[in-house]
Design brief:
The complex is a heterodimer of chains A (about 200) and B (about 240). With about 200 residues, chain A is mainly α. Chain A contains 8 helices and 2 strands, in the order ααααβααααβ. The chains are: A mainly alpha (about 200), B alpha+beta (about 240).
Chain lengths: ~200, ~240
């Protein structure tokens, strides 16, 4: 979207549904580097990561009408698709559920008052806000005990099931389950304590 | 399909949120959650938390060809699915600014114009121009965090001088300040703080047209970088 002032996620979601190519360009400008970072973190290969990102953006384009901005952010939806496609790539496309429903919300700033919607902030602020979120999420992960963090990362970034994680870490299955749950709850508490509402 | 009890589902929710259950077990959990409000809420919270995990990865710079490939494929699909359609309007190049002005509230307009006039005269004095400079204004409107806030930025393009006035800001708690920012290329620059009562008047020794956004946050003391979202903001250029 060269030369154009990009709009908010909600505006862009509406334009995506209308089939506006400019909206996918905006999405790429906003999150292309993050999407590629995520894909690379999973597949560990530049060319494969780019293929995954290309595939994910096309999936967003083709399924834009299914996206409901009231139920989550475009960013969350895009990244969930990238993650699933990347894991499909690593595991030889054996997973069944490779296209997540767009129902996961994103972190929203504001705790005591209703979270402001994305369109209320100019685009440059959205980028700043994203950096703030990313910094807080990294700190939240770093605050976890190493074993909890490992369980989350093996599940999210390597796509391992709870049984596979138990095998990999040589821990009882019940321990793995509780570490995943506890890890997520601690991240949520950490972010909430800093005014972020996952 | 066996229906799971609450006690059986409880320890599986973390793994379900992380997509770490075998397909059949995941389906059983989903089936339970459809009929259990408590676990539906818990799973939704865990899902939202799991969804922030990708934010921990570092950006990676794509090859220039990737963008071209994606846009080319999208355009080809668009052209293939239906002919180039005149009803599709191009994205407005200034839709953000237009939206800002569409939210202009008539009741506040007169006050803002009056403020702008006063500020405009002030700018003329500040920049030392005898003849009236070409003055421009940007209106700022508070968001849900500051629904009563209204503001005006008055500036003369090309001059390193501007005035920002905002009223109706949320009351500050002990130790808090209003902090104003100009943002260029995602980099916020502190342009001043105040702890006045719900209002702010700032003289800015910068040319606002060199920046994209003007914004105010409420901070726990002056910060080098914003730590909260703005309560009022607008695009400048």
């Amino acid at each position: 979207m060269s030369g154009a002032a990009p709009g908010s996620e909600r505006e862009m979601a509406a334009l995506l549904r209308q089939g506006e190519v400019a909206a996918i360009e905006w999405l790429y400008e906003q999150y292309g580097r993050l999407a590629l970072g995520l894909a690379y973190r999973i597949v560990r290969d530049d060319a494969a990561a780019e293929d995954v990102v290309q595939d994910a953006f096309l999936a967003v384009w083709r399924n834009a009408k299914a996206f409901d901005a009231d139920r989550g952010s475009l960013r969350t939806w895009l990244l969930a698709i990238v993650r699933n496609r990347a894991i499909d790539h690593v595991r030889g496309a054996t997973r069944l559920a490779s296209f997540p429903p767009p129902l996961w919300g994103s972190v929203r700033l504001g705790r005591a008052t209703p979270a402001p919607s994305a369109e209320q902030f100019p685009d440059a602020w959205e980028a700043v806000s994203l950096e703030l979120e990313r910094k807080q999420v990294r700190e939240a992960l770093e605050s976890l005990p190493q074993q909890q963090r490992e369980s989350l990362e093996l599940a999210y970034f390597e796509g391992l099931s709870q049984s596979e994680i138990a095998d990999r870490t040589k821990l009882p299955l019940g321990t793995v389950k509780s570490r995943m749950r506890l890890g997520l709850e601690k991240i949520r508490s950490f972010l909430q304590a800093r005014g972020l509402e996952p | 399909m066996t229906r799971l009890t609450c006690a059986e589902v409880e320890p599986l929710l973390g793994a379900r949120a992380l997509d770490a259950l075998p397909q059949e077990l995941a389906s059983q959990v989903d089936d339970h959650v459809r009929g259990c409000a408590d676990h539906a809420e818990t799973l939704a919270e865990l899902h939202r938390t799991a969804a922030v995990l990708p934010l921990m990865v570092d950006d990676r710079e794509p090859s220039p060809a990737l963008r071209e490939r994606i846009i080319d494929l999208v355009r080809r699909e668009t052209a293939g699915s239906e002919p180039q359609d005149e009803r599709r309007q191009p994205v407005r190049s200034t839709n953000r600014q237009r939206n800002v002005f569409q939210r202009f509230r008539p009741a506040a307009t007169r006050l803002m114009l009056a403020a702008s006039l006063v500020l405009a005269l002030g700018i003329g004095y500040l920049v030392g121009i005898r003849t009236q400079p070409e003055l421009r204004t940007v209106q700022l409107h508070g968001n849900q965090l500051a629904p009563e806030a209204e503001g005006t930025l008055v500036y003369a393009p090309g001059q390193s001088s501007a005035v920002l006035t905002v009223s109706g800001l949320p009351a500050l708690k002990a130790g808090q300040v209003y902090e104003a920012w100009l943002i260029r290329n995602n980099a916020p620059i502190d342009i001043g703080v105040a702890n006045t009562d719900r209002r702010l008047v700032l003289r800015i020794s910068r040319d606002p047209t060199s920046y994209q956004v003007v914004a105010i946050t409420i901070e726990p003391g002056e910060q080098a970088q914003p730590t909260t979202n703005p309560v009022i903001a607008a695009n400048v250029s």
